[in-house]
Amino acid sequence: MDGTRRWRDNVFVERLWRSLKYKEASLYAYETVHEAQERLAWYLTFHNQIPPHCALDEHAPDRVCWKNQPACPTAA
């Protein structure tokens, strides 16, 4: 695969980065790298677990991704 005519492969990641840049990173002046890491981790968790996405029939991405996964056995 040479990467030509593969815009669909990258469109979802580009949309995520655009959202992250305009809704989180450009709105805050982080004091430390640690603070930036915490805020960005919070945003990604929020983005995947809370808001419904129209492309996913108004469900959160985590709900769609994990609904058909078998439960992991717990350690004894």
TrEMBL record:
Segments crossing the lipid bilayer: none
SUPFAM superfamilies the record matches: Ribonuclease H-like
Pfam family, one: rve_3
Domain (Integrase catalytic): residue spans on this chain: 7-61
Domain of life the protein comes from: Bacteria
Biological processes, Gene Ontology terms: DNA integration
Name recorded for this polypeptide: Integrase
Organism for this UniProt entry: Candidatus Nitrospira kreftii
Lineage: Bacteria, Pseudomonadati, Nitrospirota, Nitrospiria, Nitrospirales
